[in-house]
Design brief:
The complex is a heterodimer.
Chain A: H1 20-28, H2 31-65, H3 72-76, H4 86-96, H5 102-114, H6 128-161, H7 166-181, H8 184-198, H9 210-240, H10 243-250, H11 255-292, H12 298-307, H13 311-339
Helix pairs in contact in A: 2-13, 6-7, 6-9, 6-11, 6-13, 7-9, 8-9, 8-11, 9-11, 10-11, 11-12, 11-13, 12-13
Chain B: E1 14-23, E2 30-37, E3 42-46, H1 53-59, E4 68-71, E5 74-77, E6 80-81, H2 87-93, E7 98-101, H3 105-108, H4 115-126, H5 131-144, H6 150-153, H7 163-174, E8 181-185, H8 193-208, E9 212-217, H9 220-226, E10 229-234, E11 237-243, H10 244-249, H11 254-262, E12 301-313, E13 319-331, E14 335-339, H12 346-353, E15 361-366, E16 369-370, H13 376-383, E17 386-389, H14 403-410, H15 420-432, H16 449-462, E18 467-471, H17 479-496, E19 499-504, H18 507-513, E20 516-521, E21 524-530, H19 531-536, H20 541-549
Parallel strand pairs in B: 3-9, 3-10, 7-8, 8-9, 14-19, 14-20, 17-18, 18-19
Antiparallel strand pairs in B: 1-2, 1-4, 1-5, 5-6, 10-11, 12-13, 12-15, 15-16, 20-21
Classes of the chains: A mainly alpha, B alpha/beta.
């Protein structure tokens, strides 16, 4: 009597092991070449995507600034208030090419951008590149600190409110909703009223030292923390209910271990993906915050440039912000891959 | 019915007396359960979903839930009481005195951590072994559970392993410290039959090595393979406990008898599986023998697949052939069963037959007319005659629609909602699938699994189809509910003279419903023929292997 192939006996390799061939095939391939072959197409695709985004950003900004009423030549000659003669205006128009058709100006602008030339500011009479770069550091510092603080606050809130207990859960979710709904300008003014005017412990305007950073960073971080906290709490609850957490508990894992070894890692994934977007919103928030706290930075530069119709500076700032945003998206991608090894498989 | 359990046996790995578990202020879901498992013994608790078996198992680990109220006269692991343990005291016992294996290791092992880390966790938590010592022990464990090349496997994520491999890894994690008691909660439910057979053999081996195994399952046939004793759970109580051959061979209690009778297995075609006086049985139907039209070679072919092939692009860019040169013909009034393990191309075939996918090569013909090759516009006229029933009835409904809306839509009567003739059509349709008109205002979520699948069948019947394509229609149902749905399909087939394509991974079910059967593997039909012939004398080695792996009642 023939023994059935896999019905009984040793639990040896059976039909449930279809990938043995693939494993050995992979092992035979030189590792370095393998990594290059896997990473290069993805990197190339990313770069192409980034260039496309920058092109779109430049195009949209170029045409959007054109919607601001007024003569650009007027802006060059000191803004709407100046009493420039028609001859002077005509000369400036010819010099900057304002008399050319829009499409010609557009391609000329693209050509300059492609060579890395951001042009000269109309109003400030200096090159846009160095101007924008000098303002970048302050804004980046503000955004990065706000993002880090938002993460800390969100993590603390999410872990505390999922500790069990209905009160904590309700308080936690209410705090998140309130925080997420706070407008930057209101929060900034309130913080100034309480900490600068009332308690007098922190300066109301930026002083260039650490104390001057506290209120701007808080203003940007609190609403974002509410938003991230909501997402983290949600996914933390899902992770804590999942079978692999039950398995871990059945192995004798402690509550703390369940969270730090398993659940928080899962809970952080959606928040990481959203951090790229959050960074963009932080930079737009910086426009308000830098203005209120009289802090030098890209936000204030942008606001001034728009008011003065200083097209090269507006485009320069927007391009730099786009580059920062794209880099941040790449970073969050890399962070996701670090936390989630499944992403590294494909 | 606990006469056979010896209490006060200090040698037992686990002793439970009068266990009661409730949640919040609701009625207890476990009501006075008592049993004991000795070292080297396997006790199976069998019951349908909601019977309280999983809650019982989790109470033994102190993991019934945060709002669970657990009480018992005795609850002992290895002779020591664990009643009233909390926090760290419980953590110190879990993993060491008792291990847990859950269903589907894809979600029961942390998908973000390599399996080696997961297996090493118990060692990290309960022993003083260093990293090197733990790594060595993990390799030994993987070897013990029969995973080949452990050095390669430890770094893999659960998602990179096949179903059987990761279930072995999960078992390795549970037995890492050699706990005297291993609880396996539906350990083979998500697995293909051949893999299931291997995992059962592994559990048998673990029992043989002296571990007490508590097996929780809904499947009597699975249990009959490995369990020394069986306890049947119903509505929070153990209604029957005894040695496996006795309980399954001569069940004493109504619930046990019903479960045994509901197993389709090799019960002949046309035999009813559910008691005909059951509350869900359609009225006006009599359970007589097989009165179906004989299938003769000359009888009309209603659906024909000719050389169907379909491939999909994989993530790495290569193409995978999901369906490879599949041909068959479905005769009027007969049932063609398509069986295969996961990934064999069954569902792709169903989608090709429904013309939801276009084949790369080959053709599907319905009533001899072009079907897959014609335009969707021409097909639409014929669509009503080809109905479909899916495994996940819940997912196939719009959750916001009531049963009335779902069926009105299927009847193309949306513009005549609420009209008397519409209501009459709905009522007669529901009557045909054995549902009362009271379900009309309810939404899918408010229905039981069996009721949902009945609504799914009613929806498929609404267009007066002549062909029904059923893709795993009973796979998510309890065995007694499955029996009722199979009987229902049998009834409507007879009443309406339907032709059925019945796709399932469950050979027992396919054997029970099919006139002809096609066995699929890797996208190909490896064997096709009359059901009796294929089951009695399989020609292809894979068919033989598949049939041998099917758990059968061993009473």
């Amino acid at each position: 009597m023939a023994e059935p192939v896999a019905a009984a006996g040793h639990p040896g390799p059976g039909p449930d092991l279809p990938d043995q061939g693939t494993v050995s095939a992979l092992a035979r391939r030189p590792a370095a070449l393998g990594i290059f072959a896997r990473v290069f197409p993805r990197l190339a695709a990313r770069l192409a995507g980034a260039v496309f985004v920058l092109w779109m950003v430049a195009t949209i900004t170029f045409f959007a600034v054109r919607l601001i009423p007024g003569d650009p030549a007027q802006a060059v000659l000191g803004g709407p208030g100046s009493q420039a003669s028609p001859e002077a205006l005509a000369a400036v128009s010819a010099q900057y090419g304002f008399d050319q058709p829009v499409i010609v100006q557009y391609f000329a602008q693209l050509g300059r951008l492609a060579t890395g030339d951001l042009g000269r500011s109309y109003a400030l009479n200096m090159d846009v590149g160095p101007l924008v770069l000098s303002q970048l550091g302050g804004t980046l510092l503000l955004a990065v600190l706000a993002l880090a603080l938002a993460w800390l606050l969100a993590l603390a809130l999410a872990t505390w409110s999922t500790r069990g207990g209905k009160v904590a859960a309700r308080v936690g979710s209410s705090l998140e909703i309130v925080a997420a709904a706070l407008p930057h300008f209101w929060l900034a003014t309130s913080l100034i009223v309480v900490f600068s005017i009332g308690l007098g412990v922190l300066p109301p305007i930026s002083t260039g030292d650490v104390a001057g950073l506290v209120l701007p960073v808080l203003t940007l971080a609190v609403p974002l923390a509410g938003f991230l906290g909501q997402i983290m709490r949600e996914s933390l609850l899902v992770a804590l209910e999942s079978p692999f957490v039950l398995s871990a508990r059945a192995r004798g894992e402690s509550e703390r271990g369940v969270r730090w070894v398993h659940a928080l890692r899962h809970a952080s994934l959606p928040a990481i993906s959203l951090s790229g977007w959050a960074f963009g919103s932080l930079i737009s928030g910086a426009v308000v915050v830098e203005t209120i706290f009289a802090r030098p930075g890209l936000g204030r530069t942008l606001l001034n440039a728009v008011t003065l119709r200083d097209v090269p500076v507006v485009i320069g700032v927007v391009m730099i912000v786009a580059v920062a945003y794209i880099s941040m998206t790449l970073l969050t991608d890399a962070a996701s891959r670090l936390v989630d090894p499944r992403l590294r498989l494909t | 019915m606990n006469g056979s359990v010896v209490f006060g046996d200090s040698a037992a790995a686990v002793t439970v007396r009068n266990l009661r578990v409730g949640f919040g202020s609701a009625e207890p879901v476990v009501r006075g359960v008592s049993f004991a498992v000795a070292p080297g013994e396997c006790l199976a608790i069998v019951g349908e979903s909601g019977s309280g078996k999983s809650v019982t198992a989790r109470s033994l680990l102190g993991l019934a839930g945060t709002n669970a109220r657990v009480s018992a006269d005795r609850l002992e692991l290895g002779g020591q009481s664990v009643l009233g343990l909390a926090g760290r005291a419980w953590q110190a016992r879990r993993g060491k005195d008792v291990g847990l294996v859950l269903q589907d290791a894809l979600v029961s092992l942390d998908p973000l951590r390599p399996i080696g880390r997961e297996i090493a966790d118990s060692l990290r938590l309960h022993t003083t072994l260093g990293a090197a010592g733990r790594a060595r022990r993990v390799l030994e464990l993987l070897d013990a559970v029969g995973l080949p090349e452990p050095e390669l496997q430890v770094r893999k994520l659960s998602g990179q392993l096949s179903g059987g491999e990761r279930q072995r890894a999960l078992i390795a994690a549970a037995i890492a410290l050699n706990p005297p008691l291993l609880i396996a909660d539906e350990p083979t439910t998500a697995l293909d039959v051949t893999v299931q057979a291997q995992i059962l053999a592994l559990l048998e081996q673990i029992t043989g090595a002296g571990t007490a195994v508590l097996l929780i399952s809904h499947d009597l046939a699975v249990v009959s393979r490995v369990a020394h004793r069986v306890a049947v759970m119903y509505d929070g109580q153990l209604v029957e406990t005894g040695r496996t051959p006795e309980v399954l061979g001569s069940p004493q209690q109504e619930q046990t008898r019903r479960m045994v009778a509901a197993i389709p297995g090799d019960k002949p075609r046309g035999t009813r599986l559910s008691p005909s006086d059951g509350p869900d049985t359609p009225s006006g139907l009599t359970a007589t023998g097989d009165s179906r039209a004989e299938v003769s070679p000359e009888s009309t072919v209603v659906l024909e697949a000719i050389g169907l092939s379909k491939s999909f692009r994989r993530q790495d860019g290569t193409r995978q052939l999901a369906v490879d040169d599949v041909s068959f013909a479905l005769h009027r009034g007969s049932t063609l069963g398509i069986v295969g393990e996961s990934g064999s191309g069954k569902t792709t075939t169903a989608r090709l037959l429904l013309a939801l996918l276009a084949p790369d090569h080959g053709e599907v013909r319905v009533f001899g007319e072009p079907w897959s090759t014609t335009s969707e516009k021409t097909r639409r006229g014929l669509r009503a005659s080809v109905g479909a029933i899916y495994q996940d009835a819940l997912g196939s409904f719009d959750p916001r629609w009531s049963v009335a809306e779902i069926l009105t839509d299927a009847l193309h009567l949306r513009h005549e909602r609420g009209a008397p003739h519409t209501t009459a059509r709905l009522t007669s349709l529901l009557d045909e699938v054995g549902l009362a008109p009271t379900v009309l205002p309810r939404r899918p979520l408010e229905l039981s699994g069996g009721q949902r699948q009945r609504v799914g069948i009613a929806r498929a019947l609404a267009g007066r189809p002549e062909i029904l394509i059923c893709d795993e229609p009973v796979s998510s149902l309890d065995v007694t509910v499955q029996a009722q749905v199979l009987d229902l399909l049998d009834d409507v087939q007879r009443e309406r003279g339907l032709s059925l394509i019945f796709i399932s991974h469950d050979l027992g079910v396919v054997q029970h419903v099919s006139d002809h059967i096609a066995i699929m593997r890797d996208g190909r039909i490896v064997e096709m023929g009359p059901a009796e012939r294929v089951f009695a004398a399989p020609q292809h080695p894979y068919s033989a292997q598949l049939l041998a792996a099917v758990p059968r009642l061993r009473a």
